[in-house]
Amino acid sequence: MAGDRQWVVLCDDSQWRVARVSARAIEETDPRPLDPAQTADLAEPVHEALACLGYRGEPVLLALGSAWCVAATVPLPTSRHAKKRQAMAYLFEPYAPWAAEDVALDYEVCGATAFMVAAETAPWSPLIGQLESRGVLVDAIVPLARLALQQHLRQTVGLLERYALLWQHEETVEFWLLDRGRPVDWQCLPADPRCVSRAVIARLMAEEETLTIHAQGFTEEESTELSATIGEGLCIELLTDATDHRTAAYREAAEILRGKRTPPLNLRRDTLGVGDRYRALRGYLTALLTAALVMFVAVGVALWWQAGQHDQRRTAAGDAQMDLFHRVFPNRKVPVGVHAHLQSELTRLQGLRGTGTDLPQKAESADI
Predict the structure, then answer these.
(1) Closest CA to 25 of 11, 5, 49
(2) How far is CA 363 from CA 197, 203, 360, 366, 368, in A?
(3) What is the Cα–Cα distance from 331 to 343, expressed in whole angstroms?
(4) How far, CA to CA in Å, does 235 sit from each of 121, 219, 313?
């Protein structure tokens, strides 16, 4: 069924692919190279890849790799700043390599701070425009790692209120700091134990209390090696959940596209915002307006035809009255009100004031 298929276009750090997600399976195209300077040229191959998987104009989620995004935890001067997106963009500007006018960002507020993620608009604005000109509706833009993290949070409700998560996938390690189910910090690290250990040690030094670290996507040997590299007797708890990072992200994206969940972060805003808010319903709205127009035209034609039928009957009745007048009064000119003259003559001939034509009832002499 078409309603059971959800579509994800994944633009990772150096490659892209298209995925069709259903309740039963996930079908992916083979990864293809991605040139960061040539993202606008992806429109045609992406459209072809979608068509090969049976795409029929459904909404699409664009998942961005971690290398395309910049994240930071920003203190809020006042709670009112969180309601003003432009003010939030300027608060984030010192943490980003781009100007506030050149980014699309979103954020999650946690107390007096906001976890903010941004991406440069220049690589994606032409691509989205060309995709939509080909009938591909980009409904949301979400970091791939944030989608996978949301699945992790749903499946690990019983973990501590504040902990760190190391999620390894391919050649990357996503380093998350979580507090009460919300991200506080996010780093994208190469899958090198020394680099990961430095990031973990820096985070441990910044924490006031002992921080528990969970690892996912690691083997037991890798987890042990990483713990030994960090030292200080720290033990990394290896999560038994074997869900693949990309698979978890696809599942979360499918729930978002089905309308069951809202994106935790959506960069389809600001300069990457939707020009037509109702573009996903535009086809249905056009069909509805067309149907309404056809209905009004049909009603108008029906009324016009009915009026014509009434006019024909009126003309026929008038002709019949004129013919009757000629037969009753052959030497008289037909007056304007034929019906009134005929009615008056009928009344005169009856010798009555009324219009009744019934014969008088006979009465028996015995009843008198």
Answers:
(1) 5
(2) 126, 122, 9, 8, 8
(3) 18
(4) 41, 14, 98
Question: Do 157 and 164 touch, CB atoms closer than 8 A?
Answer: no
pTM (predicted TM-score) = 0.74
The pLDDT tens digits of the residues spanning 107-152 come to 999 888 999 999 999 999 999 999 999 999 999 999 999 999 999 9
What residues are paired with 10 via a beta bridge? 17, 63
Give dist(CA 92, CA 96) in Å, integer: 7
Handedness of CA 216, 217, 219, 224 (dihedral sign): negative
The span from the CA of 292 to the CA of 299, in Å, is 11
- Strand partners for 110: 113
- Give me 295's structure tokens: 């209905």
The residues facing 358 across adjacent strands are none
SS3 214: strand
3-state helix, strand, coil in the chain (%, to 5): 45, 25, 30
